[in-house]
Amino acid sequence: MGLFWEISPIHFWMLTVVIGGGAAWLTGRALALSWRPYWQVVVYCLILGLAVRFFHFALLDGTLLSAKHYLVDTAVLIALSAIAYRMARTTQMVTQYPWLYKRSSPLSWSAK
User: Fold this and answer.
1) Domain ranges within the chain, ordered by starting residue
2) Does the pLDDT at position 47 exceed 90?
3) What distance in Å separates the CA atoms of residue 109 and residue 105, rounded to the nearest whole number?
4) How far apart are CA 109 and CA 14, in angstroms?
5) What's the predicted TM-score (pTM) here?
C-alpha cells in the first residue's frame, strides 16, 4: 500500500489519472470556454473525486470512504483541471483579443 494507491499503482494511474483525469481535463476546458469563474473548477472536481472514489470501490474493491485517498484523487483531478482551464483561457484571451494580448507561455498571456 502506497501513499497514493490502495491496491496497485496501475489501478491508481488508470482510474484516477487516465479516466478521472480525462474527465477533469474536459471539465476544466469546458468551464473556461464558457467563461465560468475558476472556483467552479474546484467545486466540480470535488464532485468528480467522489465519482472516482466510487469507481475504485465498485471496480477494484477499494475503500469507499477513505479521506486520505479521496483527497489524493481530488488533488490530482484539481491539478489536471486547473491546467486545462488555464490553457483554454489563455487561448481564448489571445484569440478573442489579439490587439491586447499575446501568449507568453502555454498557461499565460501578457499585454502587447
Assistant:
1) 9-111
2) yes
3) 7
4) 33
5) 0.88
